[in-house]
TrEMBL record:
It catalyses: L-histidyl-[protein] + phosphoenolpyruvate = N(pros)-phospho-L-histidyl-[protein] + pyruvate. This is Phosphoenolpyruvate-protein phosphotransferase. Its cofactor is Mg(2+). Its main location: cytoplasm. It comes from Mammaliicoccus vitulinus.
Length: 570
């Protein structure tokens, strides 16, 4: 018998394959004393050797599939595995204290980790993280437990996990990973956003799929409806193969619009741009006919590694994107770390409410060395295309002024060093915080553009965590309160002759698009895979009529009423 599980549709498409369970294995052990000391030392040494073999494979695989920079993290792990300063004390601990190998390993590694973590030295802190990772691998081998290694997957699978961190997602190889399904998360959690740029179907927020599915179970995930079928019957597989075919046929049909303009029925042109996380996403940008990049989430450059990207590395990534976009506008957002996007090597404090905490521009204005390095890389890259710079999570006008002042200082320094910097870079902000939307008229006098980040704006306005499937019913993009904020921001920008875009997921949502067109949004930036569908829809809409529709929507009392209004269109 198959089993149906309902989740949240996160990325379009249908995947049919078998489950690869990506969950933390049980590595508990008892602290027994031992009599066969030599046997225990041998056990430990064998585990170290097995770890070496495994890590070397992982490293080589990562280099082949993901590039040398992603592989470097495993080089660091291999060095730890050969370090006598770590290994000898563990052996001594077994011999001198007659403790078993897991206990000896745990005591010595915890000791090193604590010492290194408390040093005021970034390099040593990174080593603490390496030791933690390597010790876990050795322990798994001692206990005979298999650790999941997503970067080693070499057959078709659907990943099943609690959640996928953005760096887990970045390591997935599309050739083998056909989709994923998670316990937690919503449509705007970053693993969901990344699954859309990777163009792999995903269902999130299933609550307990990891308890229901076993490694290797047959699985269907329907990223269009949010349904997951565990151990499907032959008939179900046939039906979903048909659904998959239909989806691909529709995609092919939409591909015909790739070079069309995005113009409404009554001739109003809007810009349909793409959101990207890394230069690797550019292929999808081109294949889907994006007219620019409305959001480049640069934080992904900082993830999945154990140290900061240098100015040079950043310069290369930014200039590559600018060159490949060939003069089309590229809005690069400065580092937006924090919330669900962690950087282990930054050792950020654990907070009660990370989405309301030390993140994004708050962190950059505090740790200005990180910020300045990024700005220099961006300014140097500016001569290769049409660069716009955007600051995330701006809450006050002073934050914007401070960030802009630092940017201008770095520009002046570069120019005095003889570096060419574009003079026409537009400097804008994300509108993600209700306070900023409320003061949009004040901001509009000083910024060059706004980009509304509805993923956060909705969660802050409704006080409903975007990561929580339990309060997902309150995460209401079409709530009239949200529509009023959007209207206010767009009108404020237009009054000052500026433009407003939207780079939250709402910009690509087919229910929202008629309303946003009516509210006068200038640029819609979305997952590249949503662009062609949005273009098709906009071509069929009359902007004047949508103005009227939006006027009625903002006076509705509930989200349901708004949805009903939009549904009457079709
Ligand atoms: C685009 C946004 O930023 P992110 O999803 O990266 O928080 C947003 O908040 O809408
Ligand atoms: Mg945001």
């Amino acid at each position: 018998m198959s089993e149906l599980l309902k989740g949240i549709a996160a990325s379009d498409g249908v995947a049919i394959s078998k489950a690869y369970l990506l969950v933390e294995p049980d590595l508990s052990f008892s602290s027994d004393n031992i009599s066969d000391v030599d046997g225990e030392v041998e056990k430990f040494k064998a585990a170290v050797n097995q770890s070496k073999v495994e890590l070397t494979q992982i490293r080589n695989n990562a280099e082949k599939q993901l590039g040398a920079d992603k592989a470097a993290i495993f080089d660091a792990h291999l060095l730890v595995l050969e370090d006598p300063e770590l290994l000898n004390p563990i052996e001594d601990n077994i011999r001198n204290n007659k403790v078993n190998a897991p206990t000896a390993l745990n005591e010595v590694s915890t000791n090193f980790i604590t010492i290194f973590e408390n040093m005021d030295n970034e390099y040593m802190k990174e080593r603490a993280a390496d030791i933690r990772d390597v010790s876990k691998r050795i322990l798994a081998h001692i206990l005979g437990v298999e650790l999941p290694n997503p970067s080693m997957i070499n057959e078709s699978v659907i990943i099943v996990g609690e959640d996928l961190t953005p760096s887990d997602t970045a390591q997935l190889n599309k050739e083998f990973v056909k989709g994923f399904a998670t316990n937690i998360g919503g449509r705007t959690s970053h693993s969901a956003i990344m699954s859309r740029s990777l163009e792999i179907p995903a269902v999130v927020g299933t609550k307990d799929i990891t308890d229901r599915v076993k490694h290797g179970d047959g699985l269907i995930i329907d990223g269009l409806s949010g349904d997951v079928i565990i151990n499907p019957t032959d008939d179900e597989v046939l039906a979903y193969e048909q659904k998959q075919k239909n989806f691909l046929a529709e995609k092919e049909e939409l591909a015909k619009l790739v070079n069309d303009e995005s113009v409404s029925k009554d001739g109003v042109h809007v810009e349909l741009a793409a959101n990207i996380g890394t230069p690797n996403d550019l292929k999808g940008v081109k294949n889907n006919g994006a007219e620019g990049i409305g959001l480049y989430r640069t934080e992904f450059l900082y993830m999945g590694r154990d140290n900061m990207p240098s100015e040079e590395e950043q310069f290369e990534a930014y200039s590559k994107v600018l060159k490949e976009m060939d003069g089309k506008r590229v809005v690069v957002r400065t580092l937006d770390i924090g919330g669900d996007k962690e950087l282990s090597y930054l050792n950020l404090p654990k907070e009660m409410n990370p989405f309301l905490g030390y993140r994004a521009i708050r962190l950059c204005l505090d740790q200005t060395d990180i910020f300045r390095t990024q700005l220099r890389a961006l300014l140097r890259a500016s001569e290769y295309g049409k660069l716009n710079i955007m600051f995330p999570m701006i809450a006050t006008i002073n934050e914007f002024r401070d960030a802009k002042a630092i940017l201008l200082e770095e520009k002046e320094k570069l120019v005095s060093e003889g570096v060419k910097v574009d003079d026409d870079i537009e400097i804008g902000i994300m509108v993600e915080i209700p306070a900023t939307a409320a003061l949009a008229d004040i901001f509009a006098k000083e910024v060059d553009f706004f980009s509304i980040g509805t993923n956060d704006l909705i969660q802050y306005t409704m006080a409903a965590d975007r990561m929580s499937e339990r309060v997902a019913y309150l995460y209401q993009p079409y709530n009239p309160a949200i529509l009023r904020l959007i209207k206010q921001v767009i009108e404020a920008s237009h009054k000052e002759g500026k433009w407003t875009g939207m780079c939250g997921e709402m910009a690509g949502d087919n229910t929202a698009i008629p309303l946003l067109l009516g509210l006068g949004l200038d640029e819609f930036s979305m997952s590249a895979t949503s662009i062609l569908k949005a273009r098709k829809q906009i071509k069929q809409l009359d902007q004047k009529e949508m103005q009227e529709l939006a006027g009625r929507a903002i006076n509705c009392a509930t989200e349901e009423e708004v949805v009903e209004l939009v549904n009457q269109l079709s």
